[in-house]
Fold this sequence. Notes:
By secondary structure, the chain is an all-alpha fold. It has 2 domains: 67-108 and 185-263, no CATH class; 116-180. It is built from 10 helices and no strands. It has helices spanning 6-28, 38-62, 69-82, 93-106, 116-140, 144-153, 160-180, 187-211, 231-244, 252-261. Helix 1 (6-28) packs antiparallel against helix 2 (38-62), helix 2 (38-62) crosses helix 4 and helix 3 (69-82) crosses helix 9 (231-244). The radius of gyration is 24 Å and the shape is elongated.
Amino acid sequence: MKDENLPEQNDEWQSRQQKHNQRVEAFLSREDLGDLTPREYVDAYADALRPQNIEMLRGAEHIGWMATSEVRHAAIRETFRDFNFELEPVSGWSNFLFELDLIFVQFDVPDVRKGYAELRREVDACIGKLEALRPTFFEFNHSIDFSVAAMLSKAATNDNIRMLDALIKSHKIVSAWLSEHHQAPRWREKTLRNSRIDLATRLLTIFHREFGLAPKPDGGSAHVPIEQANDWQRFYQACAFVRMQERETPDRQAVLWEAYQNW
């Protein structure tokens, strides 16, 4: 069945995308970006992405990709209790958890399960499947019945081969890049560590704003058990558990001290 609202929906999506692109371009064209601290840069970029992040949250809820905000927020509060984090946010839990949601939705959890070699093998396998399909689609275009059905149904089938060829070509380019580049030793550990620092940096402002405390860890470089940690360390670890499934970040002290330097 034809969706009569589809053109309007496409126009609305294109309008939102154009506004998003304009906000990002405005951010990237700022002359003071080089003067910002890493924390200030992250905050400013998050402001530019805020409307799209809100839309992503609502869209993910609507199609069932994530639980409702009520369920998510109840789970986050329970996690804070599990880590004995008992401070009350000044803006109230509802507003605070909404803002925390926006941080989480923008933060990409790295997938370190596959290296370049394994990923390339999977890409090549997909290319093989696409190339095997190509003759079938080509044969469709030489079928009179198919051509009549395509014409009467107004299906845009003429671009099938070109689209398939473009898909194969682009994935071959990706495969070649993966083949030519090699990952550094201990890349998984380095990727995870950088991601932890990124998450901690994104949390600096909201922690300071909501709880009035400096996001500074207790102790030096040696490991501090969570039972002896301060509120910032507990807050970070709870958030890391929610977003990265890390109940005990192995290099938490080093991560939080480096993030603190980003303030």
